[in-house]
Amino acid sequence: MTPRVLISPEAEEVVQQLKDRYGELMFHQSGGCCDGSSPMCFEKGDFKIGSSDVCLGTIAACEFWMSNDQFQYWKHTQLTVDVTKGRGSSFSLEIPLGVRFVIKSRLYTEEESQNLAELRFIDN
């Protein structure tokens, strides 16, 4: 199966630091503007997932959720969560570390498109 979301080694290191401090984590990406369109990391359960969210998969043992509206724009791309220096203005847990998570994307190949990992919704 072709994963819909991946994580860079650098971002995975940051996630591990956050797990050591906070425990289980989750990601959510909304379709908002500014930092609202960046992937945000929360303690698992601190962000209320709704019926309009889809789970694209798991990265670094953390579920990655996205609003379905945003997913409709990105459904033809594989996403990679990466990290960059600088502070965002969100409530994401990495902000005090002086870094922020970002998304990099690329279009799926025709073959990959035929073998995509299944999405998960809140009801399943």
Give the secondary structure arrangement, pairings included.
Elements: E1 5-7, H1 9-22, E2 25-29, E3 40-43, E4 53-59, E5 62-67, H2 68-74, E6 77-85, E7 99-107, H3 110-113, E8 120-121
Parallel strand pairs: 1-6, 2-5
Antiparallel strand pairs: 2-3, 4-5, 4-8, 6-7
Description:
It contains three helices and eight strands, in the order E-H-E-E-E-E-H-E-E-H-E. With 124 residues, it is an alpha/beta fold. The chain has one domain: Sandwich (Hypothetical Protein Aq_1857, Chain: A), CATH 2.60.300. The strands form two sheets. It has a five-stranded mixed β-sheet with strand order 3-2-5-4-8. Strands 1-6-7 form a three-stranded mixed β-sheet. A hairpin with a 2-residue loop joins strand 4 and strand 5 (62-67). It is globular and about 40 Å long. The two termini are 19 Å apart. The model has no long low-confidence stretch (mean pLDDT 91).
Quick description:
By secondary structure, the protein is an alpha/beta fold. It contains three helices and eight strands, in the order βαββββαββαβ.
Distance between the termini: 19 Å
Quickly count the domains.
1
Gyration radius, to the nearest Å? Answer: 14 Å
Task: Count the DSSP helices.
Answer: 3
CATH fold node name: Hypothetical Protein Aq_1857, Chain: A
Low-confidence stretches: none
Order of helical and strand elements: EHEEEEHEEHE
Q: What value does the average pLDDT take?
A: 91
Q: What portion of residues is helical?
A: 10-25%
CATH architecture: Sandwich
Strand order of the largest sheet: 3-2-5-4-8
